[in-house]
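Methods — Computational structure assignment.
A single polypeptide chain was analysed. Its primary sequence is given first, followed by the predicted tertiary structure written as structure tokens.
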Amino acid sequence: MVRSLGLVAVIAAVTLIFVPGLFHPTESQRFPATDYSDYVVGFRQLTGRTAPTPRSLPSSWVANAAALTGTRTTAHLHIGFGVPGAEYAGLEETVGPPAGFVSSVLGVPISTSTGTVVVAGGTWQTVRSSRGEYSLVRTNAGLTVVITGSATPAQLQLLAASLH
């Protein structure tokens, strides 16, 4: 009886060690893909504005979240990406008032900007979120874009550069 229990414990331990996918999800399982195209179309229908969306991101980036909330004058489009290193990059866009939007997304006012960075010819304000995350903020022609998350600054700048 004791030997049987010991044998079962050894088999269970070997299974846990040598079959990692059994109990530890792969990166693609942690970040299941989401098609955000309907949310982008909805943003355009709601606001009459075309939301800049990523083009040519590396195949290792997986869109895994999307949402559209608000009204014609306060619409908020969110698209989230799982990026290499099991990190996250969030793209937030609105036609609403920039100050309140930035504060609601980052937890700090835009006045806490730590400087600027030029990405793909556009000037972005850099801000540290209330969670300490590096973030990029840009308002152009009534559309405010915030890029934030646990991804590296280089990854967040890559997302900013891909917007069209």
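Note: DSSP finds six helices and seven strands in the chain.
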